[in-house]
Design goal:
Helices cover 0% and strands 45% of the residues. With 113 residues, the protein is an all-beta fold. A hairpin with a 2-residue loop joins strand 5 and strand 6. The structure holds FE2/S2 (inorganic) cluster. FE2/S2 (inorganic) cluster binds next to loops.
């Protein structure tokens, strides 16, 4: 596997109490900000697909704007059921920019040392 880093947006562009939608590389992400850290989950509620980026953030929990289920933006897990979760993605903040690390498979015939 090789790792590629993609700059998503400035941390300052993400509201403190809400998410921010971000489409990149075919992914629909909901970005959140807690202090100086950023988190990314799939922008689709596992209940009926509402945008979680439009939900209200309290602590590390975002409330789905459609029916109110809460998800931990650090893990994508629901606060009520371990089986109800959305995807989460590895993001970091570097020099005020939120970056996403994507792992890509090696092309066939290329082996890691
Ligand atoms: S669509 Fe999110 S709780 Fe129903």
């Amino acid at each position: 596997m090789t790792k590629r880093t993609i700059v998503l947006m400035a941390l300052a562009e993400v509201p403190v109490d809400r998410g921010r939608q971000c489409k990149v590389e075919g992914l629909d992400l909901a970005l959140f900000r807690i202090g100086d850290a950023a988190y990314a989950i799939a922008d689709s509620c596992p209940h009926q697909g509402a945008s979680l980026a439009n939900g209200k953030l309290q602590g590390a929990l975002v409330s789905c704007p459609a029916h109110g289920l809460k998800f931990d933006v650090r893990t994508g897990c629901s606060s009520v059921s371990a089986e109800l979760r959305t995807g989460n993605y590895p993001v970091r903040v570097i020099d005020g920019q939120i970056v996403l690390d994507i792992e890509e498979p090696q092309p066939q015939g290329v082996k890691e040392c």
